[in-house]
């Protein structure tokens, strides 16, 4: 046994984040930890990496009980962590990033040549193909992640903790990463993989530990389990299957024709000649790796940015470059891609957050004076209906968990009962329970005969919900599939810039 | 219940700031060798001791309340209006000139000259907003610098074209306001005038606008998160211009009522030297831009001023004692800001 956590408990005041967790890691093993958001995965790993101290319990490494006070202790014990958000210096080279804080020296000077050599050798040893002199900022996300792993290896880690490593990667990059992890294990390393994607767990891990509400609900051999059992352990109940009923052809609601957008400062093309329609009673999914023009498309449709060319028509009304207000009045509801940036005011109360765009409705105001009684009743009812967990409707939005805030935003936008809903990354970073609920709501909206445009970088979400799938790559539509033609493989190739023959 | 709790935490910080401010004041008094008890007693007497001092304090609070409300309103919308002083002076000088230039006197004269003062002050603040929109000139900088222009320009107006030449020499000032066009006193023989009633009514009106109207909602959301407001279809430009206009008009009103209710003319420096606008800014900050809170804090700060004058009259402690206490208050407000900033950073770092 390489590493063992015995009865680890972590309390924040009255709240127990981890409750008597037992966990072990064998040499040359990939042990996955899965669980919903807030199940306590990250807290547990922060304790192992010295960023938090356990309230009680014991950490045993190579048979000896240890206390880990800070990350330097953890590194000295051979534990390294790759964080979900990269901690790199973009303007510096890969070699410089890897050796940072442990630089090779020539007497008192930094030895640039030796650094590059060492990093190049290290990468070769673990089968990673990188150029140590490349600038990190210029490297694709997949390579940047490799740099993070190399950094940990360079520090001499034997145990590598990876926190949600695939969240930012394309499907092909994910495949590469999983292969690299296998390679690392072959070379004698041991890996703890934190994730909520069960297919990755099934593909790469040896054992799985499932956490729910801070407790271990099971530690299983991967080959003896299946995704259904794991999700049951994660959520605590069977997940519902939401089949899409046959779609009824309706009339066109959203129509995008030859829309182009260029960056004002650099002149770079952001959207190129985009055309598509969304009809009543269908969900159109737009797949693609983040940053391939989806944000710009959302802004073009919702009026948050202006386009240079083409037209946007909603419900027969020409709305190209109109104000947000006009577009919303024509029948747009919009779940934004970033709930904290666009979707909410963190310090404002749930009431204020819930009333955005609705506050002008007859029901809620009379000649500019708000009808607080109606408003409070509406917010209370909505919160109940959409199952938003909160102590009061007057608490500020920042105290809601990500999933609960997302449910609040979904409640706000879906209940507007508009003919068109733009749902951008509607379940990013929310737990399985909330995801299931939001998916149900989107399907219900579709079944009611409204049009839904779903923009998501999560392929499983696209495939589960869409009647039709478009793939975006570098600001263009790279392909279109009917529901029955679409498959993960076909989409992945287009998302990575390839072609289906 | 929960609402009560958040309200309570809102008030803890300013109350704590005031207590520490008074404690530091205590140390300063001890250093100057006077009895602390006697000094604070004199301060209390100077501020609230009898009807005369009480009404004096309330009178002093009028421009502070109005300027504070103006700053608070813009701040709620997310715009830092540092130009209250300039707007106040512009309002005052406009009112002083208009009232003596009109061919008739009385209530109508009073209303016209006040409205004119407010309008000019509002436009002055609007101008800063326009420069932000048109040339991306930071509001903090433009509003701050416009103060100097306003104060010096008003100084020029009363030194040259509109100077009262009947009294030779002395401080430059405008011609006296006619008896009939003055804001009446609330209590005969005391300084307190109807401007106080206007200030209190406006505090309530502003509180109502912020809490109960759709426009207040738009202002609040814009101040909390610009992107969220835009996403919801709130017009940033329009809301910014209106709130800057209102903000400037309130500051201008502070100057106008001082002219018509207190000095009966515009005297160079009489409105900028006592730092009414800056004290108002402090009141708005201490009260977290809550209109009613701003009013209460404004009265407290005015009491510190008038109280320390009492201290100076009757003890050997200089009236800078009020300055010391106010300085500690400012320190505490900024401490609160950086504290929240740190909390934010910590959360994001996680």
Automatic annotation (TrEMBL), chain A:
<dbReference type="InterPro" id="IPR027417">
    <property type="entry name" value="P-loop_NTPase"/>
</dbReference>
<dbReference type="InterPro" id="IPR003439">
    <property type="entry name" value="ABC_transporter-like_ATP-bd"/>
</dbReference>
<dbReference type="GO" id="GO:0005524">
    <property type="term" value="F:ATP binding"/>
</dbReference>
<dbReference type="InterPro" id="IPR003593">
    <property type="entry name" value="AAA+_ATPase"/>
</dbReference>
<keyword id="KW-0762">Sugar transport</keyword>
<dbReference type="GO" id="GO:0016887">
    <property type="term" value="F:ATP hydrolysis activity"/>
</dbReference>
<dbReference type="InterPro" id="IPR050107">
    <property type="entry name" value="ABC_carbohydrate_import_ATPase"/>
</dbReference>
<dbReference type="Pfam" id="PF00005">
    <property type="entry name" value="ABC_tran"/>
</dbReference>
<keyword id="KW-0813">Transport</keyword>
<protein>
    <submittedName>
        <fullName>Simple sugar transport system ATP-binding protein</fullName>
    </submittedName>
</protein>
<keyword id="KW-0547">Nucleotide-binding</keyword>
<feature type="domain" description="ABC transporter">
    <location>
        <begin position="254"/>
        <end position="499"/>
    </location>
</feature>
<feature type="domain" description="ABC transporter">
    <location>
        <begin position="3"/>
        <end position="238"/>
    </location>
</feature>
<keyword id="KW-0067">ATP-binding</keyword>
From TrEMBL, chain B:
<feature type="transmembrane region" description="Helical">
    <location>
        <begin position="192"/>
        <end position="210"/>
    </location>
</feature>
<dbReference type="Pfam" id="PF02653">
    <property type="entry name" value="BPD_transp_2"/>
</dbReference>
<feature type="transmembrane region" description="Helical">
    <location>
        <begin position="324"/>
        <end position="342"/>
    </location>
</feature>
<keyword id="KW-1133">Transmembrane helix</keyword>
<keyword id="KW-0472">Membrane</keyword>
<feature type="transmembrane region" description="Helical">
    <location>
        <begin position="51"/>
        <end position="75"/>
    </location>
</feature>
<dbReference type="GO" id="GO:0022857">
    <property type="term" value="F:transmembrane transporter activity"/>
</dbReference>
<keyword id="KW-0762">Sugar transport</keyword>
<feature type="transmembrane region" description="Helical">
    <location>
        <begin position="276"/>
        <end position="304"/>
    </location>
</feature>
<keyword id="KW-0813">Transport</keyword>
<dbReference type="GO" id="GO:0005886">
    <property type="term" value="C:plasma membrane"/>
</dbReference>
<keyword id="KW-0812">Transmembrane</keyword>
<feature type="transmembrane region" description="Helical">
    <location>
        <begin position="137"/>
        <end position="158"/>
    </location>
</feature>
<feature type="transmembrane region" description="Helical">
    <location>
        <begin position="110"/>
        <end position="130"/>
    </location>
</feature>
<feature type="transmembrane region" description="Helical">
    <location>
        <begin position="12"/>
        <end position="31"/>
    </location>
</feature>
<dbReference type="InterPro" id="IPR001851">
    <property type="entry name" value="ABC_transp_permease"/>
</dbReference>
<protein>
    <submittedName>
        <fullName>Simple sugar transport system permease protein</fullName>
    </submittedName>
</protein>
<keyword id="KW-1003">Cell membrane</keyword>
<feature type="transmembrane region" description="Helical">
    <location>
        <begin position="240"/>
        <end position="264"/>
    </location>
</feature>
<feature type="transmembrane region" description="Helical">
    <location>
        <begin position="87"/>
        <end position="104"/>
    </location>
</feature>
């Amino acid at each position: 046994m390489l590493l063992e956590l015995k009865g680890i408990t972590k309390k924040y005041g009255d709240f127990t984040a981890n409750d008597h967790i037992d966990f072990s890691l064998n040499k040359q093993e990939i042990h996955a930890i899965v669980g919903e958001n807030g199940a306590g995965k990250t807290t547990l790993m922060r304790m192992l990496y010295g960023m938090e101290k356990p309230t009680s319990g014991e950490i045993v490494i190579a048979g000896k009980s240890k206390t880990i006070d800070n990350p330097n202790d953890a590194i000295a014990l051979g534990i390294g962590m790759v964080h979900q958000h990269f901690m790199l210096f973009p303007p510096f080279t890969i070699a410089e990033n890897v050796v940072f804080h442990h630089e090779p020296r020539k007497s008192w000077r930094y030895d640039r040549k030796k650094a590059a050599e060492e990093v190049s050798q290290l990468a070769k040893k673990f089968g990673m193909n990188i150029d140590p002199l490349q600038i990190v900022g210029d490297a694709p996300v997949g390579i940047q992640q490799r740099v993070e792993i190399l950094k940990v290896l360079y520090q001499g880690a034997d145990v590598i903790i990876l926190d949600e490593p695939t969240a930012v990667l394309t499907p092909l990059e994910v495949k590469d990463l999983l292969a690299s992890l296998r390679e690392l294990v072959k070379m004698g390393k041991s890996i703890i993989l934190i994730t909520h994607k069960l297919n990755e767990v099934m593909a790469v891990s040896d054992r799985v530990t499932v956490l729910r509400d801070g407790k271990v609900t099971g530690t299983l051999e991967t080959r003896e389990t299946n995704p259904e059992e794991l999700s049951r352990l994660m959520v605590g109940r069977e997940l519902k299957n939401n089949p899409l009923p046959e779609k009824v052809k309706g009339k066109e609601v959203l129509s995008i024709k030859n829309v182009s957008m260029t960056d004002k400062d650099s002149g770079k093309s952001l959207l190129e000649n985009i055309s598509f329609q969304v009809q009543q009673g269908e969900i159109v999914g737009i797949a693609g790796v983040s940053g391939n023009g989806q944000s710009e498309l959302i802004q073009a449709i919702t009026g948050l940015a202006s386009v240079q060319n083409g037209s946007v028509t909603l419900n027969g009304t020409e709305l190209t470059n109109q104000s947000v207000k006009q577009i919303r009045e024509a029948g747009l509801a919009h779940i934004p891609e970033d709930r904290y940036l666009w979707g909410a005011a963190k310090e404002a109360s749930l009431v204020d957050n819930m009333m955005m765009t609705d506050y002008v409705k007859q029901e809620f105001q009379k000649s500019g004076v708000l009808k607080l009684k109606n408003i409070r009743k509406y917010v209370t009812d909505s919160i109940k209906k959409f199952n938003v967990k909160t102590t009061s409707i007057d608490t500020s939005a920042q105290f809601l968990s990500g999933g609960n805030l997302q449910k609040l935003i979904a409640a706000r936008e879906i209940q507007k009962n508009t003919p068109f809903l733009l749902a951008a990354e509607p379940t990013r970073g929310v737990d399985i329970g909330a995801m299931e609920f939001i998916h149900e709501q989107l399907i219900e909206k579709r079944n009611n005969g409204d049009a839904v445009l779903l923009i998501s970088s999560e392929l499983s979400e696209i495939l589960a919900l869409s009647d039709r799938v478009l793939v975006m790559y570098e600001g263009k539509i790279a392909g279109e599939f009917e529901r029955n033609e679409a498959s993960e493989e076909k989409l992945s190739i287009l998302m990575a810039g390839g072609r289906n023959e | 219940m929960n609402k009560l709790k958040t309200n309570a935490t809102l008030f803890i910080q300013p109350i704590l700031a005031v207590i520490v401010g008074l404690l530091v004041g205590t140390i300063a008094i001890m250093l100057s060798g006077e009895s602390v008890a006697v000094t604070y007693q004199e301060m209390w007497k100077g501020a609230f001791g009898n009807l005369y001092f009480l009404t004096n304090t309330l009178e002093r609070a009028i421009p502070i309340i109005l300027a504070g409300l103006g700053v608070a309103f813009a701040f709620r919308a997310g715009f830092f209006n540092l130009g209250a002083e300039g707007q106040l002076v512009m309002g005052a000088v406009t009112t002083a000139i208009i009232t003596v230039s009109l061919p008739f006197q009385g209530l109508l004269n009073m209303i016209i000259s006040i409205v004119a003062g407010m309008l000019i002050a509002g436009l002055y603040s609007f101008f800063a907003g326009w420069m932000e929109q048109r040339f991306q000139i930071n509001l903090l900088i433009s509003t701050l610098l416009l103060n100097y222009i306003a104060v010096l320009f008003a100084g020029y107006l009363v030194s040259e074209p509109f100077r009262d030449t009947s009294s030779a020499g002395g401080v430059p000032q405008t011609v006296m306001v006619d008896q009939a066009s003055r804001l009446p006193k609330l209590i005969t023989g005391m300084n307190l005038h109807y401007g106080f009633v206007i200030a209190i009514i406006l505090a309530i009106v502003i509180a109502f606008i912020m809490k109960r109207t759709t426009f207040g909602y738009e202002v609040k959301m814009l101040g909390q998160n610009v992107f969220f407001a835009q996403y919801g279809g709130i017009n940033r430009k329009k809301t910014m211009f209106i709130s800057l206009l209102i903000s400037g008009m309130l500051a201008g009103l502070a100057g106008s009522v001082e002219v018509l209710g207190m000095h009966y003319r515009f005297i160079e420096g009489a409105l900028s030297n006592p730092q009414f606008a800056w004290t108002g800014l402090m009141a708005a900050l201490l009260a977290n831009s809550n209109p009613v809170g701003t009013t209460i804090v404004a009265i407290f700060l005015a009491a510190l001023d008038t109280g320390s004058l009492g201290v100076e009259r009757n003890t050997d402690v200089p009236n800078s004692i009020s300055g010391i206490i106010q300085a500690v208050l400012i320190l505490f407000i900024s401490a609160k800001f950086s504290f929240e900033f740190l909390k934010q950073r910590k959360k994001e770092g996680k």
